[in-house]
Amino acid sequence: QKEVEQNSGPLSVPEGAIASLNCTYSDRGSQSFFWYRQYSGKSPELIMSIYSNGDKEDGRFTAQLNKASQYVSLLIRDSQPSDSATYLCAPRGGSSYKLIFGSGTRLLVRP
Amino acid sequence: EPEVTQTPSHQVTQMGQEVILRCVPISNHLYFYWYRQILGQKVEFLVSFYNNEISEKSEIFDDQFSVERPDGSNFTLKIRSTKLEDSAMYFCASVRELQETQYFGPGTRLLVL
């Protein structure tokens, strides 16, 4: 059973649209959830963290968490070509502080 | 803004050789991590380190790997006898408190020939 599942994509959206990225995880003990952005050949860069059920907004980004469904998502509003990257979902294990990464969803924003 | 730094940015080595990858974590951070990413694959946890001890390691982190904080600022990952399958990007991360966000360095691209 995969620990963190993400659709690999690519998810292609036009500039200005909303991009919706989804992630499911298997460890029910996970308490913290992180979205990282990774450009090709670069290191993961933190976009958002979320710890409680519900929505958390930060600028154009909204993270949503549903622990009962073991589901976390990231919405990007007003998508820009510079948002084109791979988005990594990373829950932090309940009994461990390591990050467990999904394989990532590649987002393409068309000008 | 403080950053995690890593050296070298690229390393090419022959199979069987030892390599040392270096990281300088953010200065007031106490917990340190190494992750790796094989080309086209996901980022994988290798090891975490706190108070001069390994606190957790993955099954990837076998006897060929070791970590050290030799001088209070650097954090190193040593691979004793490299294999072809060790070719990957290696990322260092650090955090001040366990519940906080991990910040990643720019990575070292290791190529084993």
Topology:
The complex is a heterodimer of chains A (111) and B (113).
Chain A: E1 4-5, E2 11-14, E3 19-25, E4 32-38, E5 45-50, E6 54-58, E7 61-66, E8 71-76, E9 85-92, E10 105-110
Parallel strand pairs in A: 2-10
Antiparallel strand pairs in A: 1-3, 3-8, 4-5, 4-9, 6-7, 7-8, 9-10
Chain B: E1 5-7, E2 10-13, E3 19-24, E4 31-37, E5 43-50, E6 53-57, E7 65-68, E8 75-79, E9 88-95, E10 103-104, E11 108-112
What does it look like?
The complex is a heterodimer of chains A (111) and B (113). Chain A has strands spanning 4-5, 11-14, 19-25, 32-38, 45-50, 54-58, 61-66, 71-76, 85-92, 105-110. By secondary structure, chain A is an all-beta fold. In chain A, strands 1-3-8-7-6 form a five-stranded antiparallel β-sheet, with no helix packed on it. Chain A has a five-stranded mixed β-sheet with strand order 2-10-9-4-5, with no helix packed on it. With 113 residues, chain B is mainly beta. Chain B is built from no helices and eleven strands. Chain B is globular. Chains A and B meet through strand 4 and strand 5 of A and strand 4, strand 5, strand 9 and strand 10 of B.
